[in-house]
Amino acid sequence: MSIFQAIVLGIIQGLTEFLPISSSGHLVIFKYILGVNIDAGAVAESGALFEVILHVGTLLAIIVIYYKDVLMLIREGIGLIIDLIRFISGGFRKKRNRVRIVATRDRRMLLLILTASLPTALIGFLLKDIFEQYLMQSLLATGIALLITGGLLKLSQRLVSGHKRVEKATYKNAVAVGLLQGLAITPGISRSGSTIVGGLLCGFDKEFAIKFSFLMSLPAVGGAALLKATEVPLELIRLNAAAYLSGMAASAIVGFICIKTLLVLLRRNKFHYFSYYCFLVGALAIGWSIFFA
Q1: 108 closest CA partner among 215, 263, 218
Q2: In 3-state terms, the chain is what percent helix, strand and coil (to 5)?
Q3: What is the pTM of this model?
Q4: The dihedral formed by the CA atoms of 20, 25, 29 and 31, expressed in degrees to the nearest 10
Q5: Which of 61, 73, 152, 275 is at a distance of 20 to 30 A from 89, taking alpha carbons?
Q6: What is the separation of C-alpha 116 from the centre of its chain, rounded to a whole number of angstroms?
Q7: What are the tens digits of pLDDT across the range 155-211?
C-alpha cells in the first residue's frame, strides 16, 4: 500500500467514521476502486491492521474534542479500582459507603460505558474471524448492510429527543446500545448511526446520545487496536510505518472536522438526510458486485 493510498483511505475513514454512513463499508468499497489487494496473505493481514490504525486516528479526534470527559473517565476509572479494593478488603462495610462506588454522576457515566462495552467485546470476540474472513471481502454484503443503515437513519426521522441523560439512563439501555455497536463490525453498518439511533430509541436526550456514542467507542477501538497489534509481526508494522502514520494523521484531522460538523447537523435535525446517501451507495455497491466484480 502506497502513502497516497493510505492518505486517501485515511480521509475516507475520517469522513465516514462519524458521519453515519459506515467507515468500514466505505473502506471495502474504496479498496476495490483503488485496487488494494485484500485477498493475499500478508497484505490482507496488513490491511486488517491498517483499518484499526485508521480507527485509532479517529479515536484521537474524539479525545481532542472530548478531552475533559476523557480525563474524567480516566480519573473515575482509577477511583473505581481504588474503591473496589477498599470494598473487597472490608473498608466499605457500611451501606452508605458501599453506595459511594456508583453514586456520583461521573462514576455512573464510566459504569454505563463499561457496561455498553461488554456486549461489544463479546460479539467481537465470537464473530471477529467470520467477519474478517467473509464480510470484509464482500462488496455485496457491504451494499446490503448500507441499505440497513439507511433504514435505521430514516427511522431517526420519526424519533424525538428523549429526556434521559446520565442520571436516568439504565444499564439495560447501555447493553442495548452496546449490542448495536458490536453488530456494527459488519462493513456497511454505521457504528455512530446505529448507536445514536439506539440511544434515541432508549429515550436518550439527543446531546447525550451523541456524546455516549462517541465516548463508548474509546474502549472498543482501543481494545481492537491492542488486540490486532499483538497479532501482526513487528516487521510488517515497520515496513508499512510511513503509510500507517500518514493514514492515521489524515484520519485524525478529517475526523476532528467531521465531529464538529455532525454536531451542528444533529442539532438542526438533519440526521436522517444521510439515509438517502446510504441507500444510493448501497444500491451502487450491490449493482457493482453483481455486474462488474
Answers
A1: 215
A2: 80, 0, 20
A3: 0.83
A4: 120
A5: 73
A6: 12
A7: 988 887 789 999 999 999 999 999 999 988 888 999 999 999 999 999 998 889 989
